[in-house]
Amino acid sequence: MKRIVILIGWMLLASGVAAQSWSLDDCMKYAVGHATDVKRETINARQRKQDYHHAVAAFLPTVSGGVQGQYAWGRNIDPETNTYNNVTTFNNYYQLYAELNVFDGFATINAFRQARLSRDYSVTAMQKAQDNIAIDVMQKYVDAAYAEASIQIASEKLDESRRMLAKTKRQYELGEKGRPDVVQMESQVAEDEYCLTHQQNMAWQSLLALKSAMNYPVGDDLKLDILSSDKEDSLSSCPLTAEDKQNSENIY
């Protein structure tokens, strides 16, 4: 019984996730969080951060130390009694060195400046990659939403043409319309059917392009929330996930 309850719970959860509508903000956040370019720039930023820390550490003195022990035993002649005796000795040594670079031809300073510039550039490159992904997803989202809305318009126009065709046929039976009028309306219905099919194909292609830009699984459903009235945040803040924000803060 417990297994059945758990199974039902998972089914309800899966159905709720499948019915979720994706807004523009959700799509941009997902794309930035799963984009390979952003992940690559994040790794580069972390590496540049480590290089910067090494460059700062080069200004500090170098300290080293060591410990050495020596243990010996054996027979020895006692100089006072001129007899043999057993002697055991243990010696230990401690060493500590400190080194400070006074002048190296500005090599350390130049390395520090280069590491700092590389670190700042990596942060900018990561933000640029996030913005590019967000802008690309935004454009493809608008195209997909427009194509999906066009399906509704084409469907309504087809329904209207079919009603007009039925009306024209009835008027033809009553003698109010001629055969050419009926043929014209049939042609209009066929054209509207073609337009609806074309819009459906365009919407499917636009949705595939959006999934590709988001790095979203092609086989999973992606329902767009084209009727959402929520105000979208700015591109500099809305695409960032919690992990991206933490990575950006850790750069410094």
Features:
single chain; about 250 residues; two-stranded antiparallel ribbon
Task: Summarize, please.
The protein is an alpha+beta fold and 252 residues long. It contains six helices and four strands, in the order H-E-H-H-E-E-H-H-E-H.
Describe this structure in words.
There is one protein chain. With 252 residues, this protein is an alpha+beta fold. It contains 6 helices and 4 strands, in the order αβααββααβα. It has helices at residues 2-18, 24-34, 36-57, 107-173, 179-214, 242-250, and strands at 21-22, 62-78, 83-99, 223-224. The strands form 2 sheets. The chain has a two-stranded parallel sheet with strand order 1-4. The protein has a two-stranded antiparallel sheet with strand order 2-3. It starts with a helix and ends with a helix. The model is unreliable at 4-18 and 229-242 (pLDDT under 50).
